[in-house]
Design brief:
By secondary structure, the protein is α+β, with helices and mostly antiparallel strands. The protein has two domains: 86 residues; 230 residues, 2-Layer Sandwich (BirA Bifunctional Protein, domain 2). It is 42% helix and 20% strand. It is built from eleven helices and ten strands. The strands form two sheets. It has a seven-stranded mixed β-sheet with strand order 1-5-6-10-9-8-7, sandwiched between helices. β3 and β4 form a beta hairpin. α1 runs antiparallel to α2, α1 runs parallel beside α3 and α4 crosses α9. The longest helix is centred in the N-terminal third of the chain and has 38 residues. The chain is rod-shaped, with a radius of gyration of 44 Å. The chain binds phenylalanine. The site of phenylalanine (PHE) has 11 residues, from β9 and β10.
């Protein structure tokens, strides 16, 4: 009997030393219990006198082994935890995943800058609809149906009298119909024309300005534009007005700024002239004032309209308008603040 117990002890103890997992240890314990049972069943063959001593021996053996199992369990558990920590280890010195930050589109940047500059001069923003009636886009702007000036703006018609606005000037009428002078509004927005080349896109953005009050003159327009040019470009940027024609202004002017690239000496950007055309403007035509119920003998005003893309192209040195609409992130990235 004693030998059997000793043999079992040696067998289990050496197997125990080799267990590496809680699972293996648990299985070994089951095996030990089963084998112990077999050993104990040998009690039957012992005499009455021998049994108590054997029982004591078995109990001590069982207890001793259980302590060993417990001690091994602590070691195995510790090992398992260490392995788990090692496999789940995080290298905190590794660079993190960068979250890509969005940025404002250059057109939005320029639009916001224009709004900033003009609201500093007291202009309020008014946004008109992109789908306009023929009346607001043309007729009320002194451009009736058979007017040749309609040819200057190839128009997308939606229906007989409904179109995609070709100019933010439509907003002038909407404001003057509803508001009594003094008026000082700025109207940014998308406009549409059937035009497509390196400097024209079928959709582009304009910024309209309108001032109506008593005693407004062309000098006010020139002074205000001079201030705008300095703030938008450089403090030495000059403004030049050239006679032009728009049905809704009289007199009308094209406004040039001295070339920011060469400072007026003449370069490729300004085609050697030293000047760059940036906007159309003029004194609001008295017929337009009348169309909106404003008395042209009491009030005068000026209006101007500029292409936001054109300003962005000049400001950032962009030579093809398409780059503003392709949304190539390599291009857009350059405008991240
Ligand atoms: N609406 C004109 C255009 O799109 C620009 C303009 C606006 C001219 C206001 C005069 C006054 O060409």
């Amino acid at each position: 009997m004693k030998e059997k117990i000793e043999a079992l002890r040696i067998e289990i103890e050496s197997a125990m030393e080799n267990t590496q997992t809680s699972r293996a240890l648990y299985e070994l314990k089951l095996k030990f219990q089963a084998e112990l049972k077999v050993v104990m069943s040998g009690m039957r063959d012992l005499s009455k006198e021998e049994r108590p001593a054997f029982g004591k021996l078995v109990n001590e053996f069982k207890q001793g082994m259980e302590e060993k199992f417990e001690a091994r369990a602590v070691v195995v558990k510790q090992k398992e935890m260490e392995e788990k920590y090692a496999s789940e280890r995080i290298d905190i010195t590794m660079p993190g995943k960068t979250v890509k930050k969005g940025a404002l589109h250059p057109i939005t940047l320029v639009k916001n800058e224009l709004i900033d500059i003009f609201s500093g001069m007291g202009f309020k923003v008014f946004e008109g609809p992109e789908i306009e009636t023929d009346y607001y886009n043309f007729t009320a702007l002194n451009t009736p149906k058979d007017h040749p000036a309609r040819d200057m703006q190839d128009t997308f018609y939606i229906a007989e009298n409904l179109l995609l606005r070709t100019q933010t000037s439509a907003g002038q009428i909407r404001v003057m119909e509803k508001t009594k002078p003094p008026i000082k509004i700025l109207s940014p927005g998308r406009v549409f024309r059937s035009d497509d080349d390196a400097t024209h896109s079928p959709m582009f953005h304009q910024m309209e300005g309108l001032v109506v009050d008593k005693g407004i003159t062309l000098c006010d327009l020139q002074g205000m534009l001079g201030e705008f040019a300095k703030r938008m470009f450089t403090s030495s940027t000059k403004v030049r007005l050239r006679p032009s024609y728009f049905p809704f202004t009289e007199p009308s002017v094209e406004v040039d700024l001295s070339c920011s690239e060469c400072g007026g000496k003449g370069c490729r950007l300004c085609k050697g002239t030293g000047w760059i055309e940036v906007l159309g403007a003029g004194m609001v035509n008295r017929h337009v004032l009348e169309n909106c119920g404003v008395d042209p003998d009491e009030y005068t005003g000026f209006a101007f309209g500029m292409g936001i893309e054109r300003i962005a192209m000049l400001k950032y040195g962009i030579n093809n308008i398409k780059t503003l609409f392709e949304n190539d992130t390599r291009f857009l990235k350059q405008f991240e603040e």
